[in-house]
Each structure stands twice: as C-alpha cells, then as structure tokens.
Fold:
Amino acid sequence: MDTSYLGLDGKVALVTGGSRGIGKAIAAQLADAGADVAISGRKQEGLDAAATELATGTKRILPIAAHSRKPDELAALVETVVAELGRIDVLVNNAATNPVMAPLVDVETQTYDAIMETNVRGYFLVARAAARHMIERGEGGCILNISSVGGVSPDPGLGVYCISKAAINMLTRALAIELGEHGIRVNAIAPGVVRTRFSQALWSNEPLMKQEMAHTPLSRISEPEEVARLALSLVTDASAYVTGQIVVMDGGGSV
Ligand SMILES: NC(=O)c1ccc[n+]([C@@H]2O[C@H](COP(=O)([O-])OP(=O)(O)OC[C@H]3O[C@@H](n4cnc5c(N)ncnc54)[C@H](OP(=O)(O)O)[C@@H]3O)[C@@H](O)[C@H]2O)c1
Structure:
C-alpha cells in the first residue's frame, strides 16, 4: 500500500513502552506507515520479542532497554536512537505505571514517588531530550504523550495515577506553546479502558465493567489498535495544524 501521503517515509520514531500493549500497537502502525521505529521498556527480552514480531517489512525496529525511573538510561535512550537510526522525528511517550489501587489517604510516599517519577518525570526527560535534538536539527517534529481520561476526571482508587496523567496533559500544552516556533507539534491521547495487561484488573471485572458501560455510549472498551490508529493520525501530516490538544477516546464515557 502506498503510504507516502502520511509523510512518514524515511522518518524515525521512538515509542517508549513499546514492547506490548498500546505502545507495541503504535510501533506497528508507525512501521507500516514507513517509519523506522525504536522501542523501549525495562526488559530486553520483551523488547527483543516485540522487535522480531514487528520486523515484518523493510523498516528497522530497534529495541533498547531503558527504565523510566533512571534519568541516565533515558538520556542514553535518546542518544542511542539518534546514533543508530540517525534522527528522531516522532516521539511517543507511552511507558507508564500504576502499582496501586487505593484511596489517596492510604497511599505510601514511596508509591507516590514511584508513580510520579515514571509517569511524569520519565515523560518529561524523554520529551526534553528529544525536543533538544529536534530543535538542533531544525526540521520540526512531533511529540505524542499517551495520557488517560483519568487525567481529565478522577477515578476513585486511582488518585495518584490520575494526578500523574493530569500533569501529562499540562506537560503537553506547555510544550506545545514553547515548541511551536520550531515546527514541533505536541499532543496527547487520553484513552478510557483499553484491553491490555495494564488494565486487566478492570476489564476482567465483570460487575465493574457493567457499571462502566452503563454510561459509555459506545458500550465497550477499546482495543490497542484503535489507540494506535488515532496516534498515527496525530503524528502524521493528517494533523499538521493540530497542537496542544488532549484527545479523549473513551467511547463517549466522559461526555
Ligand atoms: N490500558 C488502559 O486501559 C489504559 C487506559 C488509559 C491510558 N493508558 C496508558 O497507556 C499507556 C500504555 O499502557 P498499556 O495499557 O499499553 O500498558 P502495558 O500493556 O502494561 O505496557 C506497558 C509498557 O510500558 C513498559 N514499562 C512499564 N513500566 C516501565 C518503566 N518503569 N520504565 C520503562 N518502561 C516501562 C512495559 O515494558 P516493561 O514491563 O518491559 O518495562 C510495556 O512495554 C500508559 O501510559 C497508560 O497509562 C492505558
């Protein structure tokens, strides 16, 4: 299929958390659309398996281990992608965590720190390094942050996660106003429940899902490939005049 109209031929993308779930689905779409793609995550084994699975076309898939709580590894991640693939045109910040489901009053300080370091500082550090590279190269670029609808309206028991995603929404808007003059667009996708390992405790809980679906107009959760298709449209020329936006995709649940 001719995908040249998407403007991704010869471009390079970095997808954090690309070894499974939403990140892997986005990496697959980007590679199909003509980009070379680097994927990161903590475990090399999972990255290598995903890279093998994704390397079906002519595009390069580069798996690099980097822990979002380790600033040195995140700096090395961006440097390695530029050294190995030559440039970064598209960054998809996606690797995030939620190790706790509890009321905010019961959350331990170290748990709060772990979530904020991974979900907020991790996104910031990769975005900063990628943006510095894009500014220096002078050819523009695109940053897409995978947020959550929880960053727009809070969910009980997911308070710290929701705080972290609200921060990502503001990171998106703050970066968009600073980077626009360099031709760098910054947007976010805020999904509702997506069928991945991350949210299995939610979507496998039938009574909870029944309750959720009662106020979700499309009456279903989404699949990672659906997030990936929206991601593709936001990072390509199809969205050339879109920046600073938080696109909620939750089947209408928050309407
Ligand atoms: N699934 C949902 O319902 C849902 C809804 C709204 C928003 N989201 C957001 O979508 C994004 C992706 O979630 P997902 O559902 O695809 O999750 P997932 O299937 O659990 O995948 C998470 C990915 O991130 C990597 N990762 C996790 N912790 C990391 C860390 N500390 N450092 C580096 N990499 C790390 C994982 O690899 P390793 O394990 O090897 O590190 C994996 O590649 C997240 O930002 C999440 O908040 C998900």
Summary: The domain at 4-249 is CATH 3.40.50.720 (Rossmann fold).
